Amino acid sequence: MKQAAFDVLAGNWDGYIFNKNNYYLYKNPNTGQFEFIHYDLDNTLGIDWVNQDWTERSIYSWASGSQQRPLYKRLLQVPEYRNRFSFHLNELMQDVFHTDSLRIEINQLQELVAPVVAQDPFHGLDYGFTFDDFYHGDSIAWGNQVAFAILPYVAARKASALSELENFTTPEPHIQSSSIRHDLPFSDTIIFFASSPTASTSSLYLEYGFSANDFSSIIEVFDDGIAPDTLANDGIYTVQLSQSWNTPRLYYRWRISGQNETFPCSGDFVHLSAAQVGLLFNEAMSDNNGVILDDQDIPSDWIELWNGGFSGVNLTGYYLTDQPQNPFKFELEPGFITPGQFKMLWADNNPLINRSHCSFSLNNNGEELRMYRMEDGRPRVCDWVQIPPLETGISYGRAQDGASNWIEFGAPTPNQSNQSTGMANKDMIMVYAFPIPADTYVQFSTPLNNVSLFDISGREVYAADAISSLNTSNLPEGIYFIKCLQGQQRIIVLH
Question: Where a domain ends, among 134, 164, 194?
């Protein structure tokens, strides 16, 4: 409604409402909501190519009469939205759309660029504009498509709009948007932001809990500039939560005091823990000296993925990134990777070749890689590795496929098992765990000594000297690794 009010006042006839042009509907992956973005605003403020006086066109019937424009026409049929549209029209005319403030702004811009325009041999080639045409464009119309100078257009458009403006009431304070900033599960801190530009909003409430129907914890939040809020009275409300999380998700929503409506309407959530999946980073090389060539016969940096689970992994919705703040940097090509299968990706920052080439390269000085997958519309980290500085021809990989410890390989093993590096395993005894998947317990085929249980992130969650079975009823769902004197065994816990 606010952008529609701008179009109507500025005479942006080459936008969505009149000419169905120069706009995007952008679906924000962080909110799941569409955002309206208009651009290319050259046909405004008195420019006309269609023989229309844009200073007089009705503000409530401004769209093309013969074509559908539901985002304008239908919304104006809803009294609440029509009232808000009228409010924004008046707000813009009182605050910015008047000749006094625009004259100052225009004169400052003219003085800034005038010396360069006077020396520019190209500025008049399109239509024959002279320097005087430029310098007096705020007050004298050039003619032809420049039907009005800027300030006379603003004065005429404002007078016409005010004469037609319907009575309106000031809308209730509202929350315009919300977002969060975090580095979960690597940090225990979440910073919440809400935008409520209505000046009369003195405080908001953040309501949160740990299930989709639980918003029982409530924090009053002020726009007072006190940390973590950065600037007082800017319409941005900020609050920080820091604690050790032992639950998969946190659900939250915002509410204005005295109102029943919340934002988002049904709440939102953030993943607090890593997803436990079979797909893992297994090996990587940041300075390939020809150990392996890509499909273009080039020694590109590479990343090896491995499915260490017991079932195939659908790669749809998986992402890799070397920038934690951008989890969607490179989307894996949809398809399946079977248990024990490897997948090679070329980290050459050349994704236009095909979907096996990443949109980033690996830094010789080391960097962090992360893998995310979409779960219920939100990215959740699956695996990560901090690659150290590596010399030419050296790779960095798990000591064994799926192992928690990483080592440098002088003899890299791209697209094959890391166990082929010569690690001795001839004395290992095969250990079988059953049932797999497990629910309340796991039984082992032989008693185990010096036992450690690790989750898929490599964190030790259990240790014992000698066991023949393991109680899994208190473990979260996921993939775990048993390590003992006899060797290693993957187990899956499924409640």
Answer: 164
The number of C-alpha atoms within 13 Å of 196 and in the hemisphere containing its C-beta is: 29
Q: Does residue 426 sit within a domain?
A: no
Task: Give which of 400, 404, 401, 407 is closest to 457, Cα–Cα.
Answer: 404
Domain of 227 in residue numbering reads as 177-271
Q: Is residue 484 part of a domain?
A: yes
Contacts of 132 (CB under 8 A, 6+ apart): none
Residues in CB range of 160: below 8 A, 6 or more apart: 55, 56, 59
* Res. 422: pLDDT tops 60: no
d(CA 385, CA 368): 6
- The pLDDT tens digits of the residues spanning 265-288 come to 889 999 999 998 899 999 999 999
The total number of residues written for the chain in this structure: 495
Tokens of 75: 């919304």
Q: What is the CA radius of gyration of the chain?
A: 31
Query: b or e along 22-54 (b: 16 or more beta carbons within 10 Å of the residue's beta carbon)?
Result: bbeeeeeeeeeeeeeebeebebbbbbbeeeeeb
* pLDDT, position 428: 43
Q: Is residue 30 within 8 Å of residue 113, measured between CB atoms?
A: no
Alpha-carbon distance of 89 to 83, in angstroms, equals 10
Residues whose CB is less than 8 angstroms from the CB of residue 91 and which lie 6 or more positions away in sequence, other chains included? 5
Is this model's pTM higher than 0.85 or not?
no
Which residues, listed in sequence order, are joined to residue 221 by a DSSP beta bridge? Answer: 204
